[in-house]
Amino acid sequence: MEEKKYPIYRFSAVWDQKDYKNNSTSSCRMFENKLSGEEIKEKLEEFKQNIITKHPDALFKSYECKYIEDETWVLQWFNHFTLNKFNNDSDTIRSFEQFVDRKIELNWQNGHFKDDMNPNSKEPYYCLMGAEDRYRWEVCHCEHCQNGGWTIINH
């Protein structure tokens, strides 16, 4: 049985501040279902408001939400997360291992070197941010993840 894949979107923004020009941020988020145009506008406004909360003098140059792909796991800073529900840590690790192997194979097919990007490739490199090092995998069981309905593997 194939594991459920969820839509992933990248939210990004570039803005100026009094003390810093061309500040930027981006993050990927996974949702239960594909977002409608109206839902994208809402989520993008939330993203923008979170930036304004931290940087009240932000003058936005650009901000956008872009659909990336449907996938089982999504990258954050040195971890991956999913909405998939697992019965135990072994199932979680098995799912993540299949995802990592699939992305490594995709990088190879796209002409990238083992554990490194080929700048001459026309296809994108999927950065696993250390997930290739299986000995670092740690399933998070914190209250935040449990309450949010997330499964996270730190690496």
Please explain how this structure is put together.
This protein is an alpha+beta fold. It folds into two domains: 6-70, no CATH class; 74-154, no CATH class. The protein is built from three helices and seven strands; from the N terminus they run ββαβββαβαβ. The protein has helices at 37-54, 89-109, 143-148, and strands spanning 6-16, 23-30, 59-71, 74-76, 79-82, 138-139, 151-154. The strands form two sheets. A four-stranded antiparallel sheet has the order 4-5-7-6, with helices on one face. A three-stranded antiparallel sheet has the order 2-1-3, with helices on one face. It is globular, with a radius of gyration of 17 Å. The mean pLDDT is 92.
Question: Could you list some keywords that capture this structure?
Answer:
155 residues, alpha+beta, 2 domains, four-stranded antiparallel beta sheet, three-stranded antiparallel beta sheet, 7 strands
